[in-house]
């Protein structure tokens, strides 16, 4: 855990841009593009946010956070931060790394989903690798990061798409590229689904399509079942409208969670016995088929008893 200070705060529309640094100027843990950190906003409020700054900058972490209209507390707490405030953060974790062997990289960011793409563009540019960044928003007036992108050293590789001006033509974007192009997309579910569907139609393999979602609708309810936490020696019953995390907490076993939507992977746990009903957006189809891991914040059991390594 790190304690950092907000040294700069800038608001662009509904997005607050935060620059964090160590109060004594100590170099921060290194990260690769696609990484995120958890902000510990209170004892019970922990949220993951993508790092959008240059990975070569070891003195600062930069974040861009949208003020959500239906916030459950995270974005409101972030927007309340002021310059000089101290904040506890995790070390960077990466679930969205770039493929170094890609002949070309397509970065597609929708709305606030552009944040990891900014770090990716900086890393690819520094490495001299071929890429194009497509940034999609409803309008120029609502878009954050536009001044930053227009003056970036890779500005010639950036294409802006505003719904009220010129929409993104996915077929054209995904076709006019070299073979062995890898696609990275982050943003609204409908955008990610559209990119994935179009790419698959054009012959991209699943290994060439990468996505990260910031929010997702998950159904956590279902039939009751028992969970055995083997290491802790605790057995709990997970009720119909209860998550495994909630049931374990009632028994005194706290699980570290962040997004609570099956996105970030912070509550990923090994399964020792039982059949998992996967509800998450984190594990790949292959990992879900293996059945040896579970996201405790949202997934359930298909059977009456699940044994986990906790």
From TrEMBL:
What EC numbers are recorded for this enzyme? Answer: 1.-.-.-
Q: Does the keyword Transport apply?
A: no
EC main group: oxidoreductase
Tell me which residues make up the 2Fe-2S ferredoxin-type domain: 225-310
Cofactor section: FMN
* InterPro entries for this protein: 2Fe-2S_ferredoxin-like_sf (IPR036010), 2Fe-2S_ferredoxin-type (IPR001041), 2Fe2S_fd_BS (IPR006058), Beta-grasp_dom_sf (IPR012675), DmmA-like_N (IPR054582), FAD-bd_FR_type (IPR017927), FNR_nucleotide-bd (IPR039261), MRET (IPR050415)
Q: What is this protein called?
A: PDR/VanB family oxidoreductase
């Amino acid at each position: 855990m790190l304690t950092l200070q907000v040294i700069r705060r800038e608001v662009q529309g509904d997005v607050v841009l935060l620059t964090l640094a160590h109060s004594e100027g100590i170099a921060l843990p290194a990260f690769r593009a696609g990484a995120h950190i958890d902000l510990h906003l209170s004892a019970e409020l922990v949220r993951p946010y993508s790092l959008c700054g240059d990975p070569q900058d070891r003195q600062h972490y930069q974040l861009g956070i949208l003020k959500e209209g239906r916030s459950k507390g995270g974005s409101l707490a972030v927007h309340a931060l002021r310059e000089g405030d101290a904040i506890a953060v995790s070390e960077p974790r990466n679930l969205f790394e770039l493929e170094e062997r890609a002949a070309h990289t397509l970065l597609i960011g929708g709305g606030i989903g552009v944040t990891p793409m900014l770090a990716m563009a900086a890393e690819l540019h520094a490495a001299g690798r071929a890429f194009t960044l497509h940034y999609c928003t409803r309008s120029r007036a609502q878009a954050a990061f536009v001044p930053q992108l227009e003056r970036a050293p890779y500005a010639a590789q950036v294409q802006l798409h505003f719904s009220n001006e010129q929409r993104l033509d996915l077929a054209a974007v995904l076709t006019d590229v070299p073979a062995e192009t890898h696609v990275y997309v982050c943003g609204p579910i409908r955008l990610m689904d559209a990119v994935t569907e179009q790419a698959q139609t054009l012959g991209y393999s699943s290994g060439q399509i990468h996505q990260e979602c910031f929010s997702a609708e998950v159904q956590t309810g279902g039939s009751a079942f028992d969970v055995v936490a083997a290491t802790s020696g605790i057995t709990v019953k997970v009720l119909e409208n209860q998550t495994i995390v909630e049931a374990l907490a009632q028994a005194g076993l706290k699980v570290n969670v962040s997004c609570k939507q099956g996105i970030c992977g912070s509550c990923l746990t090994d399964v020792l016995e039982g059949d998992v009903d996967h509800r998450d957006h984190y594990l790949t189809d292959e990992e879900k088929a293996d059945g040896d891991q579970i996201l405790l914040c949202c997934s359930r059991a298909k059977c009456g008893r699940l044994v986990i390594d906790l």
